[in-house]
Amino acid sequence: MKHNYQDFIVQNVSVIIGSALIGLGVRFVMLEKGADQFTANSIFWIVILIGLVFYTALVLLGVSLFEFYKRLRNKNNPDKLNIQTETDEQFINPSDTTEINSSENVEILEENNVDTNTIREIQQQKKVQQENEKLQIALNYTLNQFALYVSNEDLDLLCNAVICYSKKENISNSKLIETTGLSNLDLYHFGWNIWNHFKPVKQEEVSKLLKMAFSTLQDIELDSIKSHLKDDPQKGIIKIVEDISIF
């Protein structure tokens, strides 16, 4: 469309320039023959106007002849038009589509059901694998943070508590974990990092984990533990981190 518009402008400019050149030639001849400037200029503009009118008349005549030719051709070839119409109808006519019988429908449904079950099993396996990988990251982080500050037995208890937390199971440690060299702030930071790793889970749950696991938090209310989980993020031995997989 843009190309046609440009062609239209070029054609009209060419006609105007051609008419102007002819007008200049006629004006020059009139001046040679002794005509005054006003007469020569008037003839110049008249020549341009005649050129434009003549060009417009030719264009209109060409369009009229083309339309007449199209009507005459369609009138002489009605069968071709009907064939094209029937061909188009064949493509859009729903009555020509092949229907699938009931037995074929059953087979398709059975195959689809098999495919769906396979996909469901694959997705379930992926989910389990992702959960296991996520748990392993949490256990590695726990071992890394507490190896120097708790006994081996207590470290096993803490890892077991993290496993129960990840599976949303009740934590039932028979023995409270004793830490050496860690403050409650460190335990709060540990709790927040574990919560952030396994979220979305309510922070009340990780507060229960801390209270059930560590002896120094036994006498502190759950709401108080929750409210201090992210106190002074960069203080203490265990600090707040957004991604525990770096450990």
Question: What would a concise description of this structure say?
Answer:
The protein is an all-alpha fold. The protein has eight helices and no strands. It folds into two domains: 2-84, no CATH class; 120-246, no CATH class.
How would you describe the overall organization of this protein?
This protein has 247 residues and is an all-alpha fold. The protein folds into 2 domains: 2-84, no CATH class; 120-246, no CATH class. Helix content is 72%, strand content 0%. The protein is built from 8 helices and no strands. Helix 1 (2-32) packs antiparallel against helix 2, helix 4 packs antiparallel against helix 6 and helix 6 (184-198) packs across helix 7. It is elongated, with a radius of gyration of 45 Å. The model is unreliable at 88-92 (pLDDT under 50).
Low-pLDDT ranges: 88-92
How would you characterize the largest beta sheet? Answer: none
Q: In total, how many beta strands?
A: 0
| Helix/strand/pairing category | mainly alpha
* Cα end-to-end separation: 63 Å
Relative helix content: over 70%
How much of the polypeptide forms β-strand, as a percent range? Answer: under 5%
What are the secondary-structure elements, in order, as H or E? HHHHHHHH
Q: Compute the gyration radius: what is it?
A: 45 Å
Report the principal-axis shape.
elongated
Name the quaternary structure.
single chain
Total helical segments = 8
Mean pLDDT: 81
Question: How many separate domains?
Answer: 2
